[in-house]
Each structure stands twice: as C-alpha cells, then as structure tokens.
Amino acid sequence: MRDNDILFFNLHRRYLNASPQFGGFLGIFTLAAFLNENGYRAQSYAGQLTEGLRLIDEACQNYNIKMIGLYCDYENVTEVIFLSSYIKETYQIPVIVGGPQSTSLKKDFYIKSQCDAVVRYEGEITVLDLANYYIESLGVIDDIKGISYLKDNDVITHEEQDLIENLDALPFINDECYLVPKQDYTELSIMTGRGCPFHCSFCHEGHHTRKVRFRSVENVIEEIKIYIETHEYIKNLHILFTDDTFTLIPERVKKLCEGLEQLQKIKPFRWFCEGHVHTLFMNPEMINYIAKAGAQRIQLGIEAGTQEVLDAYKKGSTLEEIKTVVKHCYDSGIEEVYSNIILAGAHFTRDVYIKNIDFAKELLKIAPGVMEIGVVSYWPLPETTITNHPEDYGLNILDYDFITSSGDFPQIETNDIDRWELIEMMKSMEYELSEYMKELLIKGFVKTELINSWLSRKHTKYIGRWIYALNQLPHMLNFYSMVFSGECNFIDTISKNIPHIHPMRTVQLSKYLKNDSGNKSLFGYKLNDLEVDILIYSLGKLSVEELILKLREKYDDFTLINNENIENVLRKLSSQYLLVYSKY
After folding, report:
1. Does the residue 543 lie in any domain?
2. Distance CA 220, CA 229 (A)
C-alpha cells in the first residue's frame, strides 16, 4: 500500500458463502487510471466487504488518504450505507458514491450514508471535479455537473455531466491502479465503447440510453498488445469484451477481428463478447469474423421463447432470427453460446413457461454441446420500463430494493403465479434442460471433437453446463476420458484386429449396476446375461479371443459364443459407452 489521494472500492458481502466475482468489471479502475493521469494518486479495490473494510482502516490510519469513492449497485446498497457512514464518522474525509444505482438513490440513503456527493452517470470528469473541490479546494460545488447531494435536508441534483466523446483519450488501466495486486493476470477485461441505442424494457442501460461512442480499433488493439507484452509470461489468456454494443457496426467488427488475429500470432488467447441477435442476423458475416479471430464464447440476448414477450421486451428480434443466429454460431465453430431465459417477466403465464422450455430445448438441439441457457427470474432493476410500470406487464413487484435477493430468490409475482410456484418452475426448467442436455449427449448429437476439447481443458473456471452434464454421466465421461488419454481406443479405430484387442468397462459394476428382481441394467440400458458376463470379464486383462474362450466355459451354445456374435455385442456395449478397448 502507498500514499494515495483517493481510493475507490467496490465491496459486497460474501453472499451464500461465495466471494464477490468481478470478472469484466472496469468502472473504479478506469477512474483510478483517469485521476492518475490528471495529477492525483489513486488506486482501486473490488472484493469482499470484510477485506475491503480492513484495507480502508489500514489506508486511513497509515496513509494520507484525502477522499474515498464507493461503487453502488442494486445488491450492495446497505454495504455502501454502512461503509460511507463509518468512514465519515471515523476518519472525517469526503466520501463520494457512484455506480448504476446512483440515479435511483432516495433521500433516506443520503441521510443514512452521510456521503458528500453522489456521482450520476459517466464518472471520470465529475470525479475529477470533485477531487479538485474536496482535495485542492478549487471551484464551487454548485458548478459541478453530474452530482446529487443533501443540502438543508433536500436532495439537490445538478444537470448531467458532458459525455466524453473521444474515448481514445481515456488512459489504459495498468497495475498501478490496483490497491491490491491483481490476482488473475490471465483475464483481461476491455471496454471498446459506451452507450446503447437499444431500449430493452427490462434493462437499466436501456432506460438510461446514452449516445453510443466507440474507441478506435487501433486504440483497443494497442491496449491488448501492451498488456500481452507487459505480461508475456502469462499462459491461457482470456479477454472479456464488456460492452453491449460490440456487434453494432459490421465493418468495425471486421477490422477489430483482423487486429485480434494479428495479436494471436504474438500470444494465443481466447476471448468473449456479447452479440445482438438482430444485428448478427442482418449481418451474419460478423459471426464468421468473430469465430475466425478465436472467440471462445459469445453471449446473446435471447431472454424469451415467445414472440409476444420478445416484443414486450423491445428486443427487436424474432424467434426465427434467434434460431438462425445460434445455428450460424454453431456452424462457424464458436465453442460456447450463452443466453438467459427470464421467468416471471413480461406477460408471464404457465403457457409461456412451457413455450420457454420448448424453445430452449430447440436451441440446445440446434447447437448441441455449444448452446448454454441459464434460467433466471425477472430482476426489478431500478428505473427500467417494466419496474416503473409492472402492472402493464402483468407483474407484481414484491421487493424493489433487493432486500430479499442476491439474484437467488424471486422478487416478483403475477396475478396467478406466486413466488413459491415460480421457484418450483425455475428448478423444474433447470432440471428439464439439464436432462435434455444429457439426452443429446447420450444420443450422440454432440461432436466428439467438442467433448475432447472440454476434457483437454486445464483451467476449470471456464467449464460450462455441458461439461457439468457430461460429469453426470460417469460411463460416458469415462468412455471419452479413457480414449482421449491415449490408453484406450474406440472399437472402430482398431476393428481390423478385433480378436486381439482388450475390452475395458468404463464404470464400476458394483457401484452402478442395477439388479431389479434379476433384471440388470446400467444407466437405463437393459442387459442380458451374455452382456453382463462380457462386462464382468472386461477389465483389459483378456483379449477378445481369450474372452470367447472364457465364455465357452459357461455357455453350451457355441452358435451364441462365436466371433461374429461377440463382436456385435461388443459394438452394442460400446454404443452405450460401457466399453472401450486397449491394444494390450
């Protein structure tokens, strides 16, 4: 830790025994970089409340901290109230608050938090003005744009701050911006633009639609290049492009992807972006650019499985467009396509719920092994169209303030569906989609090379729902793992030498074999006596030739125990992922 003029914190409680995750989060680190470029010394920290409080105490007690900024979103309002009041009462230094919740904070927040000012919307220029005012005693607070504050028991709100038109003028985030050294240098988050032209009725960004501004492609590529050169020792780099409008302009996407292809020659990396369904449908070549440039994952804003709800959300896309874009992503070789389906959103009914499940399954089948679908309930994000007028969408909001939820518990009901039925719907849909993914795996819809790519990954934090589904099928997981390890083979790859190959079962019979009144089965596949005996002998210790000799000791019918018939049984057991084969 060093002497700083200002520190920024984004702190959350350890909800549900999970530490806060800030992958892709840039806000307070961009502020630190901006202030550092403008003559101040600033650093930022994003993490758990308890550790953040310890860092605040250490900094304020041992270093000359002149101001603290706190990030506030829908989840951590109570944390910010506590922290702000604690800092004011303990250290008597200015506290400013910003973030997406800032435009929705009520008078009660200002009173309880005792904060000096709330920064609204884009923060760099406003925070610099506040630093000049509170630290250097320059200017007057009445002239600072983009803030709210409590004065004479009233909340005073100033006009909005001017937008930064030239985003290339913003400095890059570097290691000096981190109060605590960055923990994971294998992940780099990049913002290539600001603002959003869309008006999705459930989206906070859509409500506060701002003019879209882009960094130049050259500026974006330069930031990534510097990071790669500065951290040349890093392996398995992942880049997260965080902006919602990544796919807004086809020519820009093409140019950016060409730049990424060139950077791949310096150091290979994988990357993630978000895509807008309609723009990708109208300009499908963008999907090809993205895939060719090495994208691992793209997130699509699908949200619903009925056209009525898509229209209510103002998504500007159709069900057919969604299916076409998902199929194109799959065909292009993008490994992961992710989206959420929102339950208890606009015009939600039991019939809509069934249609959501059916549409989700259709997408899973269009892109088996690639499409991933999350199930969430509608979040009443502040100031969105639906949150402002829930009755127009058939909703009753039970918790506007996120007091009862950190994304894990419904905050809404409809006139016919209460939150308890909604919870069961969420669990049921998750279960149905998981079971359907297993079904697609077992039926062979997922390409072998995809499964191989999952099993070859060394870093588990990027493992998705398909790999989770595969892990629920131990016979299939072991089947592919044993082959991809090089220890075993598929039967077709060594079929010319059947008598001399050594069958190996993929699971423990004592653990998984079911015996119901003499009817034996493994993972739903009913086994006859011969198949059971073959599995018992299949530990790789016997060749097929030796196996046949053993079986002839038990079976009198040699027409049953012959090379052709045994080979057919071996192939059948292999098709059920119960046998692999060793050459030795």
Report:
1. yes
2. 15
- CA 210/CA 100 separation, integer angstroms: 13
The answer to whether residue 299 sits within a structural domain is yes
For the stretch 245-288, pLDDT in tens is 999 999 999 999 999 999 999 999 999 999 999 999 999 999 99
Task: Please indicate, yes or no, whether residues 147 and 211 belong to a single structural domain of this protein.
Answer: no
User: For 80-114, how does the pLDDT look when each residue is reduced to its tens digit (9 = 90+)?
Assistant: 999 999 999 999 999 999 998 999 999 999 999 99
Q: What's the half-sphere exposure (Cβ side, CA atoms, 13 Å) at 445?
A: 21
Edge-to-edge strand ranges of the sheet holding 525-527? 514-516, 519-522, 525-527
Residue 81 maps to a domain: yes
Rounded to two decimals, the pTM is 0.92
pLDDT (0 to 100) of residue 20: 64
CATH number at residue 92: 3.40.50.2300
Same domain, 208 and 151: no
Alpha-carbon distance values, 105 to 9, 49, 182, 463 (Å) = 18, 20, 31, 37
User: b/e per residue, 176-192, with b = 16+ CB within 10 A?
Assistant: ebbbeeeeeeebbbbbb
Q: Which of 306, 343, 352 shows the shortest CA–CA distance to 424? A: 343
The answer on 207 and 153 residing in a single domain is no
Contact present, 157 and 61 (Cβ < 8 Å): no
In the chain, how many domains are there? Answer: 3
Q: What is the mean pLDDT of residues 406-429?
A: 93
